[in-house]
Amino acid sequence: MGDRDLRGKPVADAILEKVRVEVDSLTDAGWPPKLVSITVGDVEAVDVYVRNQRRVAERVGIAFEERAFPGDVTQEEMEVAISTMNVDPRVTGIIIQRPVPPQISIKALQTAVHPFKDVEGMNPTSIGNIVYNELDLAPCTAAASVELLKSTNLPMQGLEVVVVGHSEIVGKPIAFLLMAEGATVTVCHHMTRALSVHSRRADAVFVAVGKPKLVTADMIKPGAAVIDIGINAITKEDGSEGICGDVDYDGVSEVAGWITPVPGGVGPVTVAILMRNTMGALKRQKAAYEATFTQNSAAE
Ligand code: NAP
Description:
globular, 2 domains, 10 helices, 3-stranded parallel β-sheet, Rossmann fold, alpha/beta, binds NADP nicotinamide-adenine-dinucleotide phosphate, 5-stranded parallel β-sheet
């Protein structure tokens, strides 16, 4: 790790400290948060993520329940199960762990989650709200990446930012979150001609592609911030398994002003944002309940 590393842990800790205070006050007010994690089929594939989510949730006082469904469950059965959770007031947030078996449409499940319980920010309503600058339930990875950039204290207004990758859950939401902050955003993808022409003039570069070493030192302006979102499984020189990002860390860390390491950069902040979203979702549920209650009292 170098001294230009933009590490996730301090950013995550600061977010979680605020979340913990909110958990206490909402619990005292009779609104205890509870996350339900849904796994379908191969539980082992997601075990490490789920255990981590549970650890972080419990650290800040959020109840965490795991519900595992068999690998041959039908789409309809899953949607019924989610509808039941949507109307269960004890369940305040729903996470659907990926991957799911091929007969299950993940997008349909994300759409089935009530927008007020959509802590992952994956429901089309949540994604659409970002366009209106309603950012409290943004997709976790996108929001985490933007938090890391903000932690550099670079002024966001007018900042030249390039986002490499335009997926629905990472690249596109990052672009909208940055626009909401006043940044000037260029979005690049596999059809972009001369990626480096764009990336070299950027004050900050976000990379979310899934290709090791796609971004090299010659593509980065000296002093720029580089947020590496990629997670790629690799076999290291000594034969052991590991993960790396989309950025050539060794080269880019010589040039960049800030660089997020992989692992240890975006990942920890993503989980912290999941907890922050959990409180955002709960606050929406509380506000909706209170609005209905006030209306009913006024009608009596
Ligand atoms: P995805 O859906 O596969 O999207 C990849 C994007 O990269 C697409 O928009 C694709 O554009 C673009 N692309 C492909 N080749 C390119 C190239 N040569 N130059 C520029 N752009 C190119 O992946 P994703 O879900 O966004 O995830 C991206 C990476 O982030 C993966 O490594 C994933 O594991 C990681 N990830 C990390 C977290 C976290 O918490 N850190 C969370 C989610 C994902 P086209 O569609 O035009 O081909």
